[in-house]
Structure formats: C-alpha cells, structure tokens
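Appendix B. Raw example, untouched.
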Amino acid sequence: MPIKYRLVLRKDMTKGATAGSMLYYAVNKSTGTCDFEELCDQIADRSTASRGDVHVVMDGLLYILKQRLQKGETVQLGDVGHFQAVIGSRGTKLESDFSTSLIKRPRIVFRPSMALKNTTNLIKFEKIVPDTPVAGGGGSESPDEI
C-alpha cells in the first residue's frame, strides 16, 4: 500500500531564496493508527503467545527501557534498532563556569536498525488530488508530514 501525499505551497526556505518566493512540498497523510491493543493482537497472531502475554511483555519492555535510559544506557532491540537518552546544553567560555543548570531537558532518541531503515526502499507513493488547491501549508496533520 503506498504512502499518500499531497502538495502544499509554502515559503521557500532554501539558502539564497528571494523574499516571498514559494515552493510546492510533498506532505504525507496518515492512513490510520495501529493502537497498542491492535499491535498486541497482531503480534499474538504471528506467534504462540496470547494477546495478554504480548501485552505483559510490552509492559515489561517499557519498564526496562525507563530504567536503563535513566542510567544513561543505550537499549538495543535487535533488528528494531536502539533507544538512547541524549542531552544538550548551553555553552560557556570557561569550563569552570559550567553547571548542570545549563543542561537542557534530555530527549529519547530512537535509531532504527539497517533492516528497518531498508524498509523505506520499498515504499511507494500515491498523490492525493484535492478538490481545491491547498496553499500556505497552514498546519500539518502529523509530525511525519514535515
């Protein structure tokens, strides 16, 4: 099934673009959501585990992820990828001027494995033709559209 996209007219953000210039950009639209219960059901259908067993394992995974990430560890999930807590901070000219108050809120980053990344090579695209042209890009449906 292809990823559906539409074209949106937005400000040209390329380096050296003239003021007021606009370009069309592709944005995708989610075709639905696979919620946690459906995910557990689908995993159970592909294994000898029940939906409840899968649910318990996924809850356990979340518990361990929280523990390990709080310790600063990277959590590797085989062919899925890995999770890591990363930080950033404001800088100081002198090392002695630095304090932990300059550290920004940590973020959790997911880095997909090569096996998962290679899935993008298989994705097909299908243009959605709107009834009326969409201009300005007033807001996107999801973060994936940017």
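End of appendix B.
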